[in-house]
């Protein structure tokens, strides 16, 4: 490349050719860095997703959607780092091949050489701004809802007839028959061990239903037994209706500032919410960081040639 620079610079399209050459050096590295770093960071969430498949039987299609929804949360970190690696390696290659020295000898300034890197940085910054300000909060809300729906629906499917099933932590269910995909249950026996005194419940019928973020089991025509402990009376209660709430704490955390839309976050920050202000500054810093890291990578890469 260094031997071809004089003929390239003699053309009226010199900088266009140089820009394209530098873009060809940096863009493939940017893409590869994004893929590799995304794979490494997604592995962090694979433990949770693997538990959904193995322990709760969530379909692989749902897990694939969850993985896709998890990616936007990683992009504000991946984009600046990948951009820095791409620009640094592209500028470093010019330095190692003495192409940067040849460019300066032919009168090409550092600002002209950094121009394509600046264009790439601006493009990546625009993408990072879109993801950080709009994409990431929407994906975070969708991820939480998808995860909640997957576990909630799977509780009904796992309540199969003729088998003891732990439908929730501390709650074991046996059903003699089932309909409607496991939501309508018959001849039920339920053991609730969420406190110091376990409760045994038998009922003719039951139904699993969801309301908002709560999953409940409604029982009909049965009786509940509770032991008060040694030397204390034994309780036996007949009922026509009995409701048991099935907790899902592991996958239904309360919404936080990361899921707030940017206008709502801005309003909360204006009211003095320090957590909202911190999150807003974090979102705004992502595109700015892309521009700064892109230019910094170019300067560092070309600076190496002065001492090589």
How would you describe this protein?
The chain has 308 residues and is of the alpha+beta class. The protein folds into two domains: 2-155 and 261-306, no CATH class; 170-246. It has seven helices and six strands. It has helices at 5-9, 14-56, 60-96, 99-105, 110-158, 262-270, 274-303; strands at 164-168, 171-179, 184-192, 199-211, 214-227, 234-246. Strands 1-2-3-4-5-6 form a six-stranded antiparallel beta sheet, with helices on one face. A hairpin with a 6-residue loop joins strand 3 (184-192) and strand 4 (199-211). Helix 2 (14-56) runs antiparallel to helix 3 (60-96). The model is unreliable at 1-14 (pLDDT under 50).
Features:
disordered N terminus, 2 domains, alpha+beta, 7 helices, single chain, six-stranded antiparallel beta sheet, 308 residues
What's the mean pLDDT score?
78
Beginning-to-end CA distance, first to last residue: 18 Å
Determine Rg (CA atoms, Å).
30 Å
H/E series: HHHHHEEEEEEHH
Write the layout of secondary structure elements.
Layout: H1 5-9, H2 14-56, H3 60-96, H4 99-105, H5 110-158, E1 164-168, E2 171-179, E3 184-192, E4 199-211, E5 214-227, E6 234-246, H6 262-270, H7 274-303
What's the short story on this structure?
By secondary structure, this protein is of the alpha+beta class. The chain is built from seven helices and six strands. A six-stranded antiparallel β-sheet has the order 1-2-3-4-5-6, with helices on one face.
């Amino acid at each position: 490349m260094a031997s071809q620079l004089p003929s390239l610079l003699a053309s009226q399209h010199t900088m266009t050719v140089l820009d394209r050459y530098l873009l060809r050096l940096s863009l493939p590295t940017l893409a590869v860095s994004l893929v590799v770093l995304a794979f490494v960071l997604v592995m962090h969430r694979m433990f949770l997703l693997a538990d959904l498949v193995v322990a709760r039987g969530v379909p692989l299609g749902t897990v694939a959607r969850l993985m896709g929804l998890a990616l936007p949360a990683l992009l504000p970190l991946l984009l600046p780092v990948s951009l820095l690696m791409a620009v640094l390696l592209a500028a470093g290659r010019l330095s190692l091949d003495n192409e940067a020295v040849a460019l300066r000898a032919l009168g090409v300034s550092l600002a002209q050489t950094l121009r394509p890197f600046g264009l790439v940085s601006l493009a990546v910054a625009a993408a990072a701004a879109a993801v950080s300000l709009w994409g990431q909060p929407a994906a975070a809300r969708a991820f939480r809802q998808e995860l909640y729906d997957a576990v909630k629906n799977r509780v009904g499917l796992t309540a199969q007839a003729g088998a003891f099933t732990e439908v929730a932590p501390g709650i074991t269910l046996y059903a003699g028959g089932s309909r409607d995909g496991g939501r309508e249950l018959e001849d039920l026996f339920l053991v609730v061990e969420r406190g110091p005194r376990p409760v045994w419940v038998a009922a003719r019928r039951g139904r699993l239903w969801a309301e908002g973020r709560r999953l409940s089991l409604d029982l009909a025509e049965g009786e509940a037994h509770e032991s008060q402990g040694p030397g204390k009376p034994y309780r036996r209660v007949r009922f026509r209706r009995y409701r048991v709430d099935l907790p899902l704490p592991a996958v239904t955390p309360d919404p936080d500032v990361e899921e707030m839309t940017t206008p709502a976050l801005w309003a909360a920050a204006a009211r003095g919410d320090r957590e909202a202000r911190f999150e807003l500054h974090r979102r705004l810093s992502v595109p700015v960081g892309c521009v700064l890291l892109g230019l910094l990578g170019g300067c560092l890469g070309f600076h190496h040639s002065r001492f090589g």
